[in-house]
Write a structure and sequence with these properties.
Layout (H helix, E strand, L loop, with lengths): L4 H17 L21 H28 L4 H34 L3
Length: 111
């Protein structure tokens, strides 16, 4: 059974909405380290920030690479931009894999 990342994200959002409707606290509410960049946000805002940073760093690396092809960019800037984009993408993929793994583990739990 293959589970897409969007399905896992939707399931997580639904569980958060149900917890909010029942007056329960979120799993991540008391953990300050989860939402360092946005102290009022939850897991979804953390993921959104990660995606935005990844897209931004990818666009910057593409821009710097284009400048390098034109011969106007510093090679150190090119390598730095590419490494940053690669690091952000790897981090985002690792988080996605962990979320999917957790979702699959929850789905295997007996009721």
């Amino acid at each position: 059974m293959s589970i897409e990342s969007i399905s896992a994200a939707k399931a997580y959002i639904e569980s958060q909405n149900r917890a909010a409707n029942l007056g329960q606290s979120s799993v991540f509410d008391d953990q300050q380290s989860v939402s360092v960049s946005n102290p009022n946000g939850g897991f979804s805002s953390l993921i959104q920030d990660m995606v935005e940073k990844t897209v931004e760093s990818t666009r910057k690396s593409e821009s710097v690479s284009a400048q390098a092809v034109a011969g106007t960019a510093n090679p150190i800037d090119v390598v730095t931009a590419l490494n940053k984009a690669e690091k952000n993408l790897s981090t985002l993929i690792a988080v996605r894999d962990k979320v999917l793994s957790a979702y699959q583990e929850i789905m295997r739990m007996p009721i």
